[in-house]
């Protein structure tokens, strides 16, 4: 039997990736070994021959990015991170002194606390650029990374200082390209001429249920050419020279994104056996592994074997090339900092996640005004005041900027386009899902993205919002038209369950401000958050700007809930809790109750998540447990409110879908009125 060292070092390295993947999946008794095995040559060439990536500085800002969009092939990435000896770093990029993926962690693939979880997780394992697993998210996110690359280059590169020129390499599968988000994202990438983007498509013609002919017969090459991409083909994944040639044709400074279609045959055991779908996504089994190792000329009984010469080979490849590129960049940057100190300081802040000094200085205070302002309108003003002082805050809307008020209107903002990569207004077109993933990609590259659409369409981007939360990315979502207050557009456009659904996502901070000054505070809170996505929930209709000399300061928003109007006696008879547009309804109900001698406290509760993070003492001071008579008012469903209402509390809101009619008519029709809230308060007090 052949020993490992009898084949070429390249083949030995590739077989190391394969056997590590087999052994890890076998030990875990779950996972997909086939795709990592088949794609090992692609991973090998990209990592060891192409990536400008320093394993000792995995957060270097101009590194090439590698995204494994088919996250189920995670063992491919873990094997590569191990062989490249990528260092684990803390969130400031400081090495912790360990490997990101030590062999012990590969042995513990898919086990608790292993840095090799079932699918790659950003922040958990250094070198993982993005959390992937839900097919389509990686490719979508990569477009955000490409936009960020172009934007950074346009803003910061200077003659002789090509500071930003990284490329984004994405490995994707049939599932990625079947998912709708890939079409949205690729269409936009082609339109924007994002030449720094390279997707490598594993055309293995198999998915879980079987041959792709079951459900996928489009001509992928023609599809991507129609999007404006350059398309190349590699007929056999094991033909390294053909892979190299295709990858060489990708030029990150070029003008069109690149798709490389690579034919592969998924491995499910000894490669001389025929492929069947039964084995797809399952461990190979001991016997099959032995046969496969034998076929590779591998010691059949060795497990998790990494020949030292393979480590040495990677040390001479990425391990030598990467640090050279980074060190050259560092010295370039040092010179740059002398010529362009302000820009260099901005880059430093982008890298460390800081905001500019006095970024919040221009946030306006809104005078009391009974006629008021829609919170989407005050949001537009505050967004502009903030964005003007945070140059790397960029974003846009899915074709609703005039409604979401997400347009940056100051002259230097400009519009991001193929001929103006320095622009800060992004135009996503009607592509909410891609907008969500792209926002994640922007945040992963240090920018502060915001994204707007109608709240009802948050469903169209939910998978990306969820991943932003899982990755702890500071993405700002601006959701307007937040209730039946939308009016005549009717139930298709009236969110009912959406606020509850967003609150259900762990780590996402949902804020529904009650008036213009709460909007101002919401931005203060949102931008300070470095590791939470935030969803602002804003109205289409005008809301009175509350007189803060009469009511408590809007600064209370930072605590999630605060006593806006205290009861005339303590303890209060009843507590009225409102969010957003319903806070004014609570205030009016409080007046009605006062006429009947009932002392009501009004609590504005813009954010459950912020409130839950307060000390218990504060929470009890706002919602004292001894006051059981409570009413919560929100123009959405009741789900979740029981936690604040207790057994005697009553919810006033929606029970089903809305209807098409003027907003005022609908509020009356669905009973979201001061009279109804006052009646509910009496009922809760046991008086009705
Ligand atoms: C959005 C989404 N739907 C379903 C799955 C479950 N899933 C994991 S892999 C896979 C399909 C695998 O086929 P393909 O994408 O061609 O990858 P290959 O097996 O060829 O590597 C599916 C459906 C998923 N991960 N994400
Ligand atoms: Mg496939």
Automatic annotation (TrEMBL):
<keyword id="KW-0460">Magnesium</keyword>
<feature type="binding site">
    <location>
        <position position="32"/>
    </location>
    <ligand>
        <name>substrate</name>
    </ligand>
</feature>
<dbReference type="GO" id="GO:0009052">
    <property type="term" value="P:pentose-phosphate shunt, non-oxidative branch"/>
</dbReference>
<dbReference type="GO" id="GO:0005829">
    <property type="term" value="C:cytosol"/>
</dbReference>
<feature type="binding site">
    <location>
        <begin position="133"/>
        <end position="135"/>
    </location>
    <ligand>
        <name>thiamine diphosphate</name>
    </ligand>
</feature>
<dbReference type="InterPro" id="IPR020826">
    <property type="entry name" value="Transketolase_BS"/>
</dbReference>
<keyword id="KW-0808">Transferase</keyword>
<feature type="binding site">
    <location>
        <position position="403"/>
    </location>
    <ligand>
        <name>substrate</name>
    </ligand>
</feature>
<feature type="binding site">
    <location>
        <position position="204"/>
    </location>
    <ligand>
        <name>Mg(2+)</name>
    </ligand>
</feature>
<feature type="binding site">
    <location>
        <position position="540"/>
    </location>
    <ligand>
        <name>substrate</name>
    </ligand>
</feature>
<keyword id="KW-0479">Metal-binding</keyword>
<feature type="binding site">
    <location>
        <position position="206"/>
    </location>
    <ligand>
        <name>Mg(2+)</name>
    </ligand>
</feature>
<keyword id="KW-0786">Thiamine pyrophosphate</keyword>
<dbReference type="InterPro" id="IPR005475">
    <property type="entry name" value="Transketolase-like_Pyr-bd"/>
</dbReference>
<feature type="binding site">
    <location>
        <position position="457"/>
    </location>
    <ligand>
        <name>thiamine diphosphate</name>
    </ligand>
</feature>
<feature type="binding site">
    <location>
        <position position="376"/>
    </location>
    <ligand>
        <name>substrate</name>
    </ligand>
</feature>
<dbReference type="InterPro" id="IPR009014">
    <property type="entry name" value="Transketo_C/PFOR_II"/>
</dbReference>
<feature type="binding site">
    <location>
        <position position="493"/>
    </location>
    <ligand>
        <name>substrate</name>
    </ligand>
</feature>
<comment type="subunit">
    <text>Homodimer.</text>
</comment>
<dbReference type="GO" id="GO:0046872">
    <property type="term" value="F:metal ion binding"/>
</dbReference>
<feature type="binding site">
    <location>
        <position position="489"/>
    </location>
    <ligand>
        <name>substrate</name>
    </ligand>
</feature>
<feature type="binding site">
    <location>
        <position position="175"/>
    </location>
    <ligand>
        <name>thiamine diphosphate</name>
    </ligand>
</feature>
<feature type="active site" description="Proton donor">
    <location>
        <position position="432"/>
    </location>
</feature>
<protein>
    <recommendedName>
        <fullName>Transketolase</fullName>
        <ecNumber>2.2.1.1</ecNumber>
    </recommendedName>
</protein>
<dbReference type="InterPro" id="IPR029061">
    <property type="entry name" value="THDP-binding"/>
</dbReference>
<dbReference type="InterPro" id="IPR055152">
    <property type="entry name" value="Transketolase-like_C_2"/>
</dbReference>
<feature type="domain" description="Transketolase-like pyrimidine-binding">
    <location>
        <begin position="373"/>
        <end position="545"/>
    </location>
</feature>
<dbReference type="InterPro" id="IPR005474">
    <property type="entry name" value="Transketolase_N"/>
</dbReference>
<feature type="binding site">
    <location>
        <position position="72"/>
    </location>
    <ligand>
        <name>thiamine diphosphate</name>
    </ligand>
</feature>
<dbReference type="Pfam" id="PF22613">
    <property type="entry name" value="Transketolase_C_1"/>
</dbReference>
<comment type="similarity">
    <text>Belongs to the transketolase family.</text>
</comment>
<feature type="binding site">
    <location>
        <position position="481"/>
    </location>
    <ligand>
        <name>substrate</name>
    </ligand>
</feature>
<feature type="binding site">
    <location>
        <position position="204"/>
    </location>
    <ligand>
        <name>thiamine diphosphate</name>
    </ligand>
</feature>
<feature type="site" description="Important for catalytic activity">
    <location>
        <position position="280"/>
    </location>
</feature>
<dbReference type="InterPro" id="IPR005478">
    <property type="entry name" value="Transketolase_bac-like"/>
</dbReference>
<dbReference type="Pfam" id="PF02779">
    <property type="entry name" value="Transket_pyr"/>
</dbReference>
<feature type="binding site">
    <location>
        <position position="280"/>
    </location>
    <ligand>
        <name>thiamine diphosphate</name>
    </ligand>
</feature>
<feature type="site" description="Important for catalytic activity">
    <location>
        <position position="32"/>
    </location>
</feature>
<feature type="binding site">
    <location>
        <position position="280"/>
    </location>
    <ligand>
        <name>substrate</name>
    </ligand>
</feature>
<dbReference type="InterPro" id="IPR033247">
    <property type="entry name" value="Transketolase_fam"/>
</dbReference>
<dbReference type="Pfam" id="PF00456">
    <property type="entry name" value="Transketolase_N"/>
</dbReference>
<dbReference type="GO" id="GO:0004802">
    <property type="term" value="F:transketolase activity"/>
</dbReference>
